[in-house]
Each structure stands twice: as C-alpha cells, then as structure tokens.
Amino acid sequence: MEESGSPRFRKLHFPVGLWINSPRKHFSKLGARWPSAASVKSTTSSDATSLPEAPSSVPSSLSHSTPSLAPPSPSPSPAFLRPRPANQQSRAKRLSHLFLRGRSNSDRDRAIGEREREIWAHSATPSSHHYLPPASSNAPGLVKIYGDALSSGANYRSLLANMHSTACQLIKQVITRYTERERENESEDTALQKYYPEDFLLCDVIGKPIQQPDGAIKWQTECRRSVASWECPLQLVDMWRPKDGFERRFEIQRLDEYEREEKEKEKERERAGESYQGVRWRRSRMSSGGGPEEERGHRGRNTELRRSISDMNLSLRRRQGNSGNAPNGQDRKNIVSMIAAEGGEVTGSRSGGGETDRRTRAAAEDRDTCDLEVMSQSLILPPTDWPYFLLLQGYDQSKDFVLYIMAGHTHVFGRKPTFREREMDRERESKGKRPLKVDTYLSAPDLLARHLLIRRDTAIPEQPRGQALARPFRGGPVTLNGAPLYREAALKPGDLLGLGSHFLFLYRDPRVTPAPPLALPPPWQGDMSTSYGPGGMTDRQEMLRQYLGSTESLLRFQAKHSDALLQEIISKNSSPDSGGGALAPAYLLSLMIDYASKHLDPALLPQLLLKAANQIKGIVWDKIKEFGDKHPTQNSAEADVELPPPSMQKLSSDLRPLMFWMSNATELLNFFQVKVEAMEKEWEFEAPGDPVLSADMDTCSEALVQLDDVIMHTFQQCVYHLTKMLYSLLPALLDTNPFSSEEQKKGKAGPKDRAGNEAEGDEEEDISTLPPTVAGLVEVYRCSLQLSRDACLSPPLTSQTFGYLFFFTNTSLLNTLLERDSLFSWSRAVQIRTNLDLVLDWLQGAGLGDIASEFLKKLSVTVNFLCIPKTRLIQSSWSSLQEEHPLLSPSQLHHLLTYYKLGPTRAPPSSWAPPPGIELGGDIFESFLDHPPLILPNETPRLDLTQPIPSPELMKEVTCLRTFLWGLDQDELPANQRTRL
Fold this sequence. Notes:
By secondary structure, this protein is of the alpha+beta class. It contains 33 helices and 18 strands. The strands form four sheets. Strands 9-8-18-17-14-15 form a six-stranded antiparallel β-sheet, with no helix packed on it. A five-stranded mixed β-sheet has the order 3-2-7-4-5. Strand 10 (410-414), helix 14 (419-430) and strand 11 form a beta-alpha-beta unit. Helix 18 packs antiparallel against helix 19 and helix 20 runs parallel beside helix 25 (772-790). The radius of gyration is 45 Å and the shape is elongated.
C-alpha cells in the first residue's frame, strides 16, 4: 500500500513553516505530476472514466499551483479542459520543462506520472478547432477572437500569433483591427469612439454551438475564465483542450462588465450556500494588492509570498490512509494539533487491520483533512526582509488578506478607481502629471481611489534607514493609534493605522528592533480642550490651571468652535485701545491658524483664512467710513467753501485705527503666505489638478487678496490725509526768513507756550527751537513717525509711507518754486536752503535721513543751483551748468536761467543760451502721478510662535480665550462631568 505523506517530509524532516515557504521545491515536485485536478475531479468527463489505474484521490492542490497555465474556471463545472496528449513530440511541454525546474526525486510520484501520461496519450485526440503548431516551433498560428464587446453583432477576428504572443498584445491588435474597420466605414460627421486596452480583457470560453429552430447557430457558453495579460493564448490552446463535444474560443470583453457579472454570480452562489473554492483560490494567488490580475504581473512576482499548505501540493488525500509508521507521522500530528478537531482526537499509529477500524480511521482522517484544508490558510509566516501591515479589521472577509507586504519604498492604499477617475488619470498623464500608482486595493466603499501613502528608507530624504512616514491623501479619513491623522506623521512599528471606518492595520518592520507593546492613548488625550485629564476632579483642575497659565504659544480648540473663537478674537481686539497691544489681533489669529494647520482637518484651514480676512476687511471698511465722516473731502458743490485744516493732533488720533489695522493686516498677510506655501508643499503627492485642491487654493488666494485690499486702502487713506496737511504747510517753507529777528523771537517763545510739557523728549525740544513755520511742517512728520511706531508698522511699509510723504513734499515745493520766478535770486535761495536744511537735520536725527535725501534730491539740486553766487554763475556756460546739475531737464534749466534775477538792468549772458537742437518744449513741472508704487511686503513674519508669549498684555488675552473655549466645552458636558476652576 502506498505510504502516506510526502517523501520529502520523511526524508528531510522539514518543519511545516519551511515547507510552506519553499516554492522551489513545490515546482520541482510539480514537474512529475502532469494531470490537472480539474480534469481528474470531474465525474462526467469521459477521461475521468477511462482511468482505472489512476489513484482514486488526486491532490486538489495540483491545479492551484499553476496559475499562469491553467487557472481554475469560475464556472460551476470545471471539467471542460483536459491536457494535451503526451507523445514523442510533446515531451518538452511538461511543466517541469516550462518552469525550468528539476523533476521530483520521488520514485512513487514518477511512476504514477508516467502511468497517467501513458493512459492520456491513448485516450486523447487533438482538437481541430485551432491550428496548433508544435511547442518547440516558433511558427505562427491563427487565433480567433470574438469582439462583440467592441461592436455589437460583430463576428470574430483571426489574428496571426506565435507561442509567445500575450493576451495584452492580442487585445491591442483586436482594438486596432476594429478601429481601422470603423474608420473605413465612418462618415465625415461620425466621431470615432476611442478604446483603451486597459478597459478590456481576454476570456478563455468553453462551450458549444447550438443550432436554433430557424437554422441559426447560437453559441452556448458553459464556462469562462479571464486570461491574464501576461499569459500566452497559444500555449493554453496547445496544453489544454476541451472535452469531447465542446469547443473553445477566445472573447474580448469589457473589464467592468466582466467584473460586475462575476460579482453577481458570486452573490448567487453565496445565497445558494455553495462553497466556491475556485474564487477563494484565485484570490489567494493574487498579490497583497488585491487588484486586477493584469496589474499584478507574472507569477514570478508572487513567489516571495508565503503560501498556504493547500497551495503547496501536500497531497493530503493521497496520504490519508497510512500515516502511522511513516517517519513524518510526527510532523502530521503537529500540523493537525494546531487545528481544533471536531468529534475526536487524531491518532498517529494504526493498532489493527480490521475493516471496521480502517473505515473508522479513514472517516476520522477525512474529517481532519477537511479541517486542515480549510484552516491551513491561517498558517502564514510574516516576511523577514520587508515591513508589512497585519489586518486586524476588514470590510469583506472573502476579499481581504491577512498580510499586506510593503515591498517598495513607497506604498499607496486605495480602492479600485471608477471609469471617470481612470479617464482623469489618463488626462493628467497626457499633460505630464503622473499620479501615484496604487499598490494595495481595498474593498471598502468609504475609501478614496488614493487614500494613504506610506514612505520609508530612500523615499524619505535625509532620514536614516528604518524610518517611515504616513501621509493621508486629501479628504481621506485616517487614524493613527486612534487619533485622527490629517498630515504626514512618523510611523513606528507597533502603530495602529485605521483607514475609513472599516480597515484597521498593525504596522510591523522586522528590520527594526521591536517596539514596546502599544498603549493606545485615552480619548481625552486626543483633544485637550474638551477635558483635561482622566483622573479625579483634583487632577483635572490642576491640569486645567497649568494650561490656562502656560506661557506656551498655543491655543487649543475644536473645529466646531472655530467660528465662535474667530468672532471672540475680532470683537475683543478691534481697536488700538483694547489692551492687548498693537499686534494683538494678528498674534491671536496666528495662534488660531497655526493650531488649525497642525492639528485639525486641512479642509478647515482655507475657510479660516478667508473668514478672518473678511472679518478684518469689514471692520476696516467701517473705520474708513467713520473717518470720512469726521474729515470730509471737499467736493465740487462746496468748492467755494474753505474747510479749516484740522490740527495735527486731532488728525493723528483719528488715523490710529487705520494705522493699527494696516499693521495687523501686514503681519497676517506674511503669516498667511507662509501657511499657504506649507499647504502647497503638503499637496505634492496629491493627484495634480484635483478639483478639491484647486478650490482650496482659490479660497486661500481670495483671503490673501482681501488682506491686500485692507493694506492698500488703509495706506491710501493715511498718506492722503497726511499730504493734505502737508499741502497747507509747505508754501511757508519758501517764504519764511529764518534769519529775521521776529522768527527767532517766535522760536524762543515756543517753549514758554507749552505749559506742563517740561518733561518732553529731545524731539519735542528740537521742534520747539525751530521757526514756527518750519516746526509745523516737521510736526506732521513727527506725528506720522509716532503713529507708525505705536502701531508697530512693518519697517518696509514704514519706509514706503514716508517715501510717499517725501515724494509729495519734493514735487509740491519744486513746482511752487518753478512757478514763482520771484524766488530766482541768491538771497531768497539761501533762505529756502536754510529752512530745508533744518527739516533734513531733524529727519536725520529721527532715522529718516536716507529716505528724505533720496526723495528730496531734485528739490535740493534746484535750490543749490539758485544758491550759486552771481559772479560764478555769470562765468558759467550752458554745457557746464547742465553737466553739474544732471537732474534738471533742459526746459527746467532754461527756465531758471531765463528768469534769474541778475539785476534790474543786466541781461542774461550769451553763454547761457542753449546750443541749437536742444528740445525746450518739455513741461517744467513735476507730475504727481510718478509717485512710487506700493509694494506689499513679503518677508518672514515677525510673530514667532515657537517662542513663549512675548508680553503680559498678550498673555492676559490668551488666558481669556483659553477660558472662553473651556467654557464652550463645559457647556456641552453633563453637569456631573464638568470641571470647575
């Protein structure tokens, strides 16, 4: 009697785990076993009845180990294919030759294989449905492919193929043939439909033609199988032929329709209670991705996966009768001991030879074999060279795998894309924007097409080996150790990853030292703003006090409280007298935005930016309207009514709110720009051109535009009313004689008039010593500088504000000087020069000398020209004067020389005459439209949130906001769970 168990177990004493992980030995043993389990298990096939000498039980795992040649048919009756006869010409077609493996060294298996091949060689006849060239020949053959899926009612296409032509190549040829035929028959108004090979698959169909009563021939399909893209149809035809009475043909079908039909058939079988081993086997042979077969490549890619016992050709049924005295009996006992046997224990030896005992033991062995066949799927060893994800909770038990191996340095989880999503990916690829490829397809409906990206090792720049990062795709719900994950975070061995509401994985990396047992954080740690500790009331109160009094730049809040928090910040800090300081709104809003950008849903951040910008813009518009009511602009109807200019102190007080919001809007603009740039960097792995991301980017851009408008309008209002004040004071600078005794007396009387201001600063004392007309002009600059300092205005914006004021001073004084030719004399020019020097000296002391010198340069050059002594000026020529004063245009220089006061009877010398050809028709006045443009600052924010809260005033405001948020959380809790201060 044939001994039970594989000789390999008896000889080498391999443990079970090693035998599972040895695909090389599996294929070596397979070479000596030619028949397919599908052809032997059938009870209706004529071949099955013609095998009286074959073993009564052929291992069912034989067909399972050859997925690339004869995958099982999903049909209810898998016995329509049988192998080609073995003769002298087909010895090279054995599986051992195809896989380039050695034959089994088992004499028993070799004898059985030879005997079976001899029987099949006499019983089988070649099929006449196709022309079949010898396997050793490269001669082409004809393959008929029916294309009803491409064109309704279409017949077959005959393609010329060889033994190495793959199914993918044939699909492309069929699509090309049908496209050419449609192009020949199309009209000018008909648009050709575009086909993609990825949307179709080739099916191996077994059936027979049935003649209808009307004489028509109709094909009746008995079973079908999808052919993988890397399989060669002619090899399939050459190796396996249909049972007598049936024919084979290849059909091209749409992938989505085929999958939908298979799902419907599977549901019907599940409802009927049928155990569909073929489908489960086929899924177990797929890679960890679980995607379509055409996306998984050749079988060689799966040889690294751990195989179950049922897949490794253990010949369970052929060993069930004699395991007692075999050397591997202990191994079998160990295998069965891992499975909870039902109805009794498994014995390891035979105690008698009676028929009854043999039948009893055979029945028990059969029950154990069935249990082992089912339960051996769980005997899987994890990989030792790659990280992997262990499934703890899934969605569909029939489709989910236990292990998902991360073989590459990047791994993408997702679901199978829809037709529309595939079209969008093709469009992006055509534009050069290639999206990431999904490595693992999951079946849950709440997952995105690309849901989670894992990166490790070389995929992470400048990181040591063994590091891993998890990054959810935009809008994909992911949890890390129970806490929501919105942005990229470190992934450590032992962490729990949740995808959607169904999948839960345990991440392991065997290359890294095992982490300590994972302790999930209590729910309270996920949101400190909701509760402040898991302990007793005293502990929670202490944690709350520590948080409220912390100087850390942190403001925790829940997403549902964002609107209330925003309103609280704006309403309590809307004026410079609120008490939080000059930059209180910008600092508090930055704390809010910073926390949202790091801990809350990314979809919330663009909305917060826009809401904050709109709130600020609304307040500023109200402030501008209020300021306009206090300082109306003179219109045409009131042109005859002269409005008295307001005092500089009154104007400065009314401009404080505008300068306050201009400063805060500038800081927020710089901070928002940094956050938007960081947000764009987070999107580098997202699908290019995603409409959700584009909408978020538009929202962020709109928020930045709103802040731009706030800065520009407040700047315009400030410089407009300051220049109005300057306009009424500038003419006095040209008419005042600083050397007169009256002006000196007024200057000395200035300090006495300032009662109660003895403790004023040096700048006030400097202004009081100036002539009153000059002091009035300097007072405008002093108040403007004090406004910018009180508001903590950005230095670039402060420079542009005074640059505009100095530009207006230069243009207004120069045009007035050129217009009044009575000032074109040496004596008047010296007075103007002295007054101008007094102003420039004060500006130099205030730190504004460089800006003033740049914008008042042309006025200084013109006054310096008029200060040239008469004797020297008379001896100068046109060319020398133009060379010494290049800033003056020819028309301006000619105007100054023409109206210069040399004396009542003296005419201008001939040397002042311009040479012929000089254009003198230009305008002598400067244009106010040539003012410098406002350039919005783009600099690093001055608000550093990595440092503690900078001032006691801001600390007080932050504490108030923390208390406000704590109150919102407490209102949502039952009374017995609230924490009191």
